[in-house]
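Sequence only, no structure available. Ideas?
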Amino acid sequence: MAGAAAAVAKQRAVNEGLGTNENAVKYLNQDFEALRNQCLQAGVLFKDEEFPACPSAVGYQDLGLRSPKTQGIAWKRPPEICANPQFIVGGATRTDIRQGALGDCWLMAAIASLTLDQDILARVVPEDQSFQRKYAGIFHFQFWQYGEWVDVVIDDRLPTKNGDLLFVHSAEGNEFWSALLEKAYAKLNGSYEALTGGSTIEGFEDMTGGISEFYDLKKAPSNLFQILQKALKAESLIGCSIDITNAYETEAVTSQKLVKGHAYSLTGAEETLFFSSINWSCKPLTSQSPPEPGARSFLCCCLPGLDIRRGKASASGGRTGNQDTAPRSVVNFRGRPVQIVRVRNPWGEVEWTGPWSDEAPEWNFVDPKVKQELDQQSNDGEFWMSFADFMKQYSRLEICNLTPDTLTSEERHKWSITLFTGSWRRGTTAGGCQNYPATYWTNPQFKIKLVEADDDHEGGCHEPCCTVLVGLMQKNRRKQKKIGEDMLTIGYALYRLENHTEVHLNRDFFLRNKTVARSDTFINLREVSGRLKLPVGEYLIVPSTFEPFKEGDFCLRVFTEKQAKAIEIGDVVKAKPYEPHESDQIDDKEFKSLFQKLAGQDNEMTATELQTVLNRIVSKRPDIKTEGFTKACCREMISLLDDRGTGTLDVAEFKILWLKIQKYIHIYKKADTDRSGTIDAHEMRTALIDAGFQLNNRVQQIITQRYATDDLQIDFDGFVACMLRLETLFKMFQMMDKEKSGVINLSLPEWMCCTLV
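Reply:
I predicted one. Tokens follow.
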């Protein structure tokens, strides 16, 4: 009950604006300003009890307590590490990040990209933090998490070995913003070790709230270089990586010093020309024509056991991310044009040694001024290479769009964005993919109505099209690594709707209708996303895991170029429970005689007497399985019908109850399609509809938790108890909702009286 109440309170807070960057959620209810002021007034340095400086914060397996890698770790504050610690020196730059002894190159690449846009950086790294002014050993950072911004507080005790920072650090040695940022992200995910392995796009999205796209460079569009230039100009974040073919190639270095399975950032894309004479001039880079959407592909960086269903494959790879605004000019020589890109290794070393590398002879044939701008020739992990070599050497490219439409239109404009949160739960909403038709229809369902075509739609005049970007993201899986949970294998499907109401669609709909679009594969990535072109109309989106009964939480993001209407199907809660009619009446004389025998001389049936009667009846029904009605259940039945407040049933009240139970027997047997004598939890949804109840997914999940067994079966006594409990709750609400507004106000005593019945 406490969990359900917390969920309701959280949703109300979100509706009031909680979770925006300006009003971020206080992670673990820690308020940075209040905690810092307390420490300053007490003259002590902050110690974070929610993420203490102990072995569990470092890791749980490879970096666990008994691991050789963690022996000799000492937690130190920056003033204990160097004489003059600084939070940021001369502005945060991508050269501030040096990867340490942790496999989080994907995160380092994302952080490096973060420094290239000061507006984005200010959202993640709040100002007014230093080791000189108001220093109390406490810092905070903000991250985007599944549709909301959260503010994460940490103390500044950092893991060191032999006096040096163990994980991320700056080149200067006295700058600590990046190390503290890494610690805050580790706290958000449970430990430092939880950050091992991942996709740079994950880091991109958690620091921007942007939406991602993927390119397989073996199937890249012909205008990819122009797409990159435009993405960089729009300050998008870009990552790249080289696939590996087996686990032994992880972080293997090629002959030209590129690291396989490792996350890189792409920070620049320029076009220059060799010169054959000294007749040259500079002019601004001309605008490019709008690139076409590229092919989509999936990559699991540094994640062993990549699981792509419908043809299962496994791999272990690495990802990247970073971008920069390189010089915006083209040098006109009497020579041939060359496209070059700038790439960064977050290690800060191990650089490409091929053409256009730091010491390559190609730089001798470039105008000295341009060369000075582009070629820094320092071993900082950043290097240039020809775009042709880049396409040959690298396998994957990822772009996180801060303005999602940047890659398909010359004009920058914001998309219309809709975000849903939901969950897959055994027995109610974890229906699996279309391979499991018996349960697939129970998955969460969302409807989107596209009413206005794109300005430059690709459809014919009779079928104008709309651009839709769908992103399905599973939540909190990295944090659950510690308990052995891995990424779920997820995907989504879209269906065309005609004349649909807001009722949850049943199994028959999916047997009759084919998908009009879907994710390319079901895959164990944090997010599956895709860009679609759909005709104007209504569509159903069904997010699911590959197999049924896999539990997890998700958020579904839908981006449309024009305004669109989107709702969750079946999110309405209403009821019209069965009430006996004249046609349902039974012989009154015979029934009264029976009641007198059962109730005794006082003609009032107590909970104990009702329990005896009902259990005697159901025990004679071999087609219905039950463990017997409990006294508590019988008291609830009496509470529903006892208008006199006596705690007993008279003959008229018992007659109504008797007819209701007969009706529920009919509904129960109809839902029991396999004639097992019980109903499965997913069959409960149909039974509830037949009984007159329309409930949303959250209420369905609570019913399963309360009334289903461990193997997701609901026997008859549990079914009847559920039906009568629902009827009681609806009737109580309707009586108190005098104005029919859908909202009631109760004092605490009133609330207690209603809920304790």
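The chain has four domains: 2-191, 206-408, 416-570, 582-755.
Hope that gets you unstuck.
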